[in-house]
């Protein structure tokens, strides 16, 4: 994955102590918030305590917060929460610099996942999919080997399995199918296609699972429900990718 160079902090260079992890996480959350001086008479939907009172979160890693910044409004969607609750929510995620509103799912920043290392390939095959007789097909091949969970996974240091790889998936080689492919490439780069967790099919834990973006894995028929024809599939996938913060603009930027 691509690295990012950090701009040196003049204060740190002058001998000031570098920010702690707690301070960095506070700054990430503050970046997407506006302070609310007079909170409405409603509950924070994270801790279910009144916004006018203290946060119900009492866990570690949050730190003290002044009364003036105890409630914030997310800048795009306008939903309001206790600042401490948002920091706790951020601490419980990937800590990648992004934040997702728990009410409406609006994403602030660039969301990334915890997909393990692997390989994504694709090529065009000279056969059409049911329901798409006028074009060839795109075959995507995902391959992820088993490995050891990292700090972003449910059980760091414990092995994870990777069943059913390589996995073959299909799209029509149409204008919309190629658009979906471009966005899936962005999702792969952001580690959002797969995750590590518990399989809803087998119940196995600590294994590689699909991550909320549906794929068609059956080529010539739709006996399993994972094939074609399915007239709404491409639009559904575009919507699922949008829910992960990936739009056509991202594909243009990341070409």
From TrEMBL:
Keywords of this entry: Cytoplasm, Metal-binding, Notch signaling pathway, Repeat, Transferase, Zinc, Zinc-finger
Q: Which GO terms describe its molecular function?
A: ubiquitin protein ligase activity; zinc ion binding
For whether the record's keyword set contains Zinc, the answer is yes
The protein's superkingdom reads Eukaryota
What's the protein here called? Answer: E3 ubiquitin-protein ligase
Ranges annotated as biased composition (Low complexity): 1-19
- Location of region: Disordered: 1-26
């Amino acid at each position: 994955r691509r690295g990012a160079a950090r701009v040196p902090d003049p204060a740190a260079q002058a001998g000031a102590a570098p920010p702690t992890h707690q301070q960095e996480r506070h700054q990430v959350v503050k970046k997407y918030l506006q302070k609310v001086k007079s909170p409405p008479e409603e509950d924070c939907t994270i801790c279910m305590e009144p916004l006018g009172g203290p946060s119900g979160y009492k866990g570690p890693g949050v730190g003290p917060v002044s009364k003036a910044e105890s409630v914030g409004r997310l800048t795009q969607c306008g939903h309001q929460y206790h600042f401490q609750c948002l920091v706790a929510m951020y601490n419980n995620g990937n800590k990648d610099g992004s934040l997702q509103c728990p009410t409406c799912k609006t994403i602030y920043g660039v969301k990334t996942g915890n997909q393990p290392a692997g390989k994504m390939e694709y090529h065009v095959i000279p056969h059409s999919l049911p329901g798409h007789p006028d074009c060839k097909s795109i075959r995507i091949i995902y391959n992820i080997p088993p490995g050891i969970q990292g700090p972003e996974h449910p059980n760091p240091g414990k092995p994870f399995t990777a069943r059913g790889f390589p996995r073959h998936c299909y799209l029509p080689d149409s204008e919309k199918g190629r658009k979906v492919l471009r966005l899936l490439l962005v999702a792969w780069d952001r580690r959002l296609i797969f995750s590590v967790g518990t399989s809803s099919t087998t119940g196995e834990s600590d294994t590689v699972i699909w991550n909320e973006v549906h794929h068609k894995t059956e080529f010539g028929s739709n006996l399993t429900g994972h094939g074609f024809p399915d007239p709404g599939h491409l639009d559904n996938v575009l919507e699922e990718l949008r829910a992960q913060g990936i739009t056509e603009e991202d594909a243009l930027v990341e070409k």
